Structures are given as C-alpha cells and as structure tokens.
Write a sequence for this structure.
C-alpha cells in the first residue's frame, strides 16, 4: 500500500474524528478542496454502507473508506499528468466539434436565407440590398443579444407584407424610420415583460401557426418555377427531387457530422456546373453584390405628421414580429429542451430593428424556417447565428458570384424538406380524439395565416379558444341545497353551496339556481367555499339574487369567501348590500404548498363533507399550479 501523504492523513483524521455516519462524513471529507484532480478511480469505491450502524462501526467504516481513498489518491499521482492531458484533449475535441457544427449550421442557414430575403424585398417593394442588409443585421444582433441562440432572425415575409403599403405611398426613407420606431416599441414591450402573455396562446393555435407557415413557405417556392419553359422544367424538377433525396439520405446512410442541406446544395450546384445543366439560379432573380451596411439616418421630416404616418405601421410590425418571434422561440425551446426568457428576446428584437433602421434595412423578426434548419443542422449556440450574419455579409461583398451560381432547385428542395419537417403530422390523427373547438381553432389559424398574416391568425385563434373556454366554464357552476338546524339565532337556515366559477359567462345560470319564491326557510346562506367570483358581473349577479331574496322577506348571509372575492365586495361599496359572515377558522387561500395539496380530494357536490373537506377540495381544484412551488397561509 502506498504511503499516505500529508493531505491524505488530514483527510483521514477529519473523517475518523467526525463520523456519526460513515457514508456522509466520508463524502464530506472527500469533498474538501484538493490540489489533485478527482479521478474515476477515486469515486469508484462502494459507498453503500448502512447508516444505522453503532457508533464504533461507524468510526471503523469511516476509517476504512478514507484509507482506501487516500491509497487511491497516492496511487493516481503517477498517472495524474497523463490523465489530465487526456481530459484536456477530450474537452478540446468536444469544443472544436461543437464550433465546427455550429459554423456549418450557420453557413447552411445563410444559403437558405438569401432567396427568402430577396423574395421578401420584392414583396416590400425595396431593393435587394435592403433585404440582405436587414437579414445580416437582424441575424447578427439577435445572435448576440437573444435569449434563444437557436432562433435565427432576418427579413421576414410577415413583416414585409405589413410595411409594403407604407413603402408604396411614402417611399423607402419612411420605411427606415418606421423600422427604427418598431424597434423602440419592441424594446418597451420587452421592458414591460409583455412577452409572458405568449403563454396564453393555446396549443391548437401553435399547431395552426406551424401548419400555416409550412403552407406559406411551401407555396412561396412555386414562384421559382414561373417563367420556365417546358425544356427547363423537367430538369429543375429532377434537381429538386435530387436535393430532397440527398437531405433525406445523407444523415441516415452517410454522415451526421455535416448538415444535410449544405451537402445537398453543394452537390447539386457542383452537378449543375459540371454537367452544364441549363436551370434558373439565384443570379437570375437579382444581383446580391453590394457593400457593407453603413450608418444612414432616415431622410424624413421630424414632425408630428410623420410620426402619425409611421406609428400605425410600426405598432403593427412590432406586434407581428414579436408574435412570430415568441412562437418560434417556444418551438425551438421545445426542441432544444431549454426554457428561455421571452422579455430578453423581445428586447433583442427591438435593438436589432433599431440598428436595421439606421443601417438601411427593412427590418424583420425570427424566421421559423431558417430557425428549424439551424436547429436540425446542430446549431445550438450563438456561433451559428453570428456565422450566418458573417456569411451573408461575405456573400454581399466578395462572394456574390459564387452565390449567384447556386441553382434555385437546390434551395426549393431544401425548403420543401423543411416544410415536411415542421408540418405537424399529428394534425389529422387528432380529428375525432380532441374537442371539436380545437379542430376549428387549428383549421382557422392555418387558413388565416395563409390568407392574411400571422398576427391576425393568432388573434383569431386566441379569441375562438377563449370563447370556447368561457362557454365551457360557464356550464360548470352548480348548487346543492341543505338545511342547517338552529344555524342562526335558533332558526334553521337554507344553505346553498355553490361550486364553480362565477363570472360574466355564468351569471345567467347562477341566477336560475336560487328560486326565492319556492324557498321555505326564513334565513338563506350563500356558501362560496367551492366557488370563486371572478369579475364585476359576478358581483352584480350576487346583488340581484340578494335583492330577490330580500324582496321575499328572507335574511341573507354570505360565507366562505376567499380574500380576493371579499376584496371585490369591499371595493364594490354600496353596489352590493349583503352581510358577509367572517369565519376565523377559514384557511385563507393565498398560496399553498404542494405537499399539502397532494392528498386532497373529494367529490365536488358531496354535501356530506365538512367545511374543511370542501375547502380543501376547492383549494386542490383552483390553486394547484403545475411545476411551481406554492405556499400556505392560515388565519
């Protein structure tokens, strides 16, 4: 056995002196700072000794364990340099591989972004260089400041459609001022943390958004076939099919280290150049040659009329851009299994649009197509976004001739494979398995996305889903009547125990649950332990029921109101004239610990339960928050 070093003796003495539990104390001793790295040999000794040993056995266990650790530490000193060299080499290999993967992913995205950016410049009515400058600026700034590195931003079609009328009526200088103001609006939205409201977008709306964008991206590729004669049509179709086949086959049968879209684009371009195939290229659409973006202040008059002209467009572009960005962020978060902050992404989009406006760009937002290409190609860090921006600038300045030679068929095939990837394949399987309203929402959002723009589609979907939820919630208010003997001043009372939410949608049904004329008892108690008052319509409904009961000569009491409900009654003042019974033993429903909620249960309409049991059932139903730690407050 190797001799103990000074450090090992210190570790051994500490463990032997303080070892009420051999396993815990030995681990603590081993966790002390050491100049020697911990190796696999040091942590491979069995630690599963019983904790409930006698004090003498615990000391012996601690001593034996620490002796073994000290021996292993001494033994591994001779191989320390070799092990550290191997570890450093492995770390360097992993880091190098990750950087290469992200660089190639960024290059692939930049190639796919060029035709999209050029197409959107035609939609907006601006020069191609304006769209390319916007793509490079948006990609670079958002890669530096964005919360989700996998999201790729650029000159998007959703924003191009909104700003096209402004360009047509006032010119490109008003466009630059509008984009700068758009960025300011987005930064304000991020500072106010309005991005959190994207969580209100239900899953059917998200599905319709993805499917709608898939149809938009897929149909946009048909523009590449316009103006092509019959002789060039079939070769182009063959090149598209070849591109799609390569993207499918390369990661399955060749290699996963290289992005399949990049391999397919390079292979098809080489084939076209080598075989001299006559087909449409990027250069046939427009020239991408130009210079680096320079600082440019919009040449517009600084007046209220100018601000009034661009403000509506700026707010619309900001809303459309943030909605598409946040939905794309959620999609990428689900793929990368990494939750990112929405307000940070909003601020990054705002800064990018301000920079784009002062660099002569058309603005933009996150692009779901390019983001999915980036993520599928292995882009997980900011390196991919920065590489994309650098490549776009390089293509504009020095690589225009090379990029203009890329056949459109390769890019069309790449985008169509992307459509197949992002289309939610479970859409049709859900028919008959999910509520009909969800199917209606998916179909509506998909259709409106194709027909108009993303913002209108999302708003329509949220409105339909909200109305559906309100209607279903309105049907879930119930009442159970029971008589309590000698409840108040020796008189029996009719207790109406309500269950469910009381809000604008359920007020009509609430008013029908209590019939004052048929009530025989002189005292009526409205018990809201299992119910909640959500808005002023609920207060007015209580007021009407109380008025009817008092008209019939009934004495009315209300009990078991939660603090927020009681606060609504207090703020209402003279609007609601009722007698609220205070219950000093009532658990105030503020925030409840999950351990308290775990065992709660009981039927909603079981009138045989005690007040405590019904209170706990209400807590479980209304205050359980998945994944969040909540607390309990008692009075």
């Amino acid at each position: 056995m190797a001799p103990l070093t000074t450090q090992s003796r210190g570790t051994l003495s500490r463990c032997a002196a303080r070892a009420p539990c051999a396993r815990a104390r030995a681990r603590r001793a081993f966790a002390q700072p050491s100049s020697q790295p911990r190796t696999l040999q040091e942590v491979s000794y069995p630690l599963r000794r019983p904790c409930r040993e006698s004090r003498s056995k615990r000391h012996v266990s601690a001593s034996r364990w620490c002796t073994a650790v000290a021996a292993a530490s001494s033994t591994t000193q001779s191989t320390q340099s070799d092990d550290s060299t191997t570890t450093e080499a492995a770390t360097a290999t992993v880091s190098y591989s990750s950087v290469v993967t992200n660089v190639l992913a960024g290059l692939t995205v930049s190639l796919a972004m060029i035709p999209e950016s050029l197409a959107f410049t035609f939609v907006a009515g601006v020069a191609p260089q304006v769209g390319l400058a916007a793509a490079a600026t948006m990609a670079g700034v958002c890669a530096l400041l964005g919360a989700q590195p996998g999201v790729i931003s650029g000159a998007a079609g959703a924003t191009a459609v909104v700003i096209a009328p402004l360009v047509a009526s006032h010119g490109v200088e008003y466009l630059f001022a509008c984009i700068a103001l758009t960025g300011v609006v987005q930064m304000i939205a991020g500072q106010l943390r309005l991005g959190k409201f994207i969580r209100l977008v239900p899953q059917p709306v998200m599905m319709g958004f993805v499917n709608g964008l898939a149809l938009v991206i897929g149909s946009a590729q048909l523009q590449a076939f316009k103006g092509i004669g019959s002789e060039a049509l079939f070769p182009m179709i063959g090149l598209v099919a070849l591109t799609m086949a390569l993207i499918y086959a390369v990661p399955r049968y060749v290699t996963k280290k290289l992005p399949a879209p990049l391999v397919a684009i390079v292979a098809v371009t080489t084939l076209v150049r080598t075989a001299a195939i006559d087909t449409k290229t990027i250069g046939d659409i427009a020239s991408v040659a130009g210079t680096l973006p320079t600082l440019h202040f919009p040449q517009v008059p600084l007046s209220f009329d100018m601000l009034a002209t661009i403000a509506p467009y700026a707010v619309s572009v900001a809303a459309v851009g943030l909605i598409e960005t946040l939905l794309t962020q959620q999609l990428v978060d689900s793929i990368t299994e990494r939750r990112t902050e929405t307000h940070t992404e909003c601020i990054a989009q705002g800064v990018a649009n301000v920079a784009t406006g002062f660099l002569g760009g058309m603005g933009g937002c996150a692009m779901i197509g390019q983001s999915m290409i980036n993520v599928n190609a292995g882009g997980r860090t900011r390196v991919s976004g920065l590489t994309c921006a650098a490549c776009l600038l390089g293509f504009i300045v020095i690589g225009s001739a090379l990029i203009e030679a890329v056949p459109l068929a390769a890019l069309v095939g790449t985008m169509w494979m992307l459509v197949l990837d992002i289309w939610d394949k479970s859409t049709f399987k859900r028919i008959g398995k999910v509520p009909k309203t969800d199917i209606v929402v998916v179909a509506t959002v998909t259709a409106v996305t194709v027909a108009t723009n993303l913002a209108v589609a999302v708003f329509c979907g949220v409105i339909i889903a909200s109305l559906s939820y309100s209607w279903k919630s309105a049907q879930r208010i119930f009442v159970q009547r029971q008589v309590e003997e000698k409840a108040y001043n020796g008189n029996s009372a009719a207790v109406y125990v309500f269950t469910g939410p009381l809000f604008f949608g359920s007020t009509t049904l609430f008013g029908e649950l209590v019939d004052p004329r048929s009530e025989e008892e002189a005292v009526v108690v409205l018990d809201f332990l299992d119910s909640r008052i959500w808005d002023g319509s609920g207060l007015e409904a209580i007021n009407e029921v109380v008025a009817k009961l008092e008209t019939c000569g009934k004495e009315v009491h209300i009990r078991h109101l939660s603090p927020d409900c009681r606060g609504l009654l207090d703020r209402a003042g003279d609007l609601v004239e009722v007698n609220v019974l205070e219950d000093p033993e009532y658990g105030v429903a503020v925030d409840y610990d999950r351990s308290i909620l775990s065992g709660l249960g009981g039927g909603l309409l079981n009138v045989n339960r005690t007040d405590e049991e019904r209170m706990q059932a209400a807590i479980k139903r209304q205050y359980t928050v998945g994944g969040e730690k909540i607390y309990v407050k008692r009075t």
Observations:
- The first helix runs from residue 6 to 17.
- The chain has a mean pLDDT of 76.
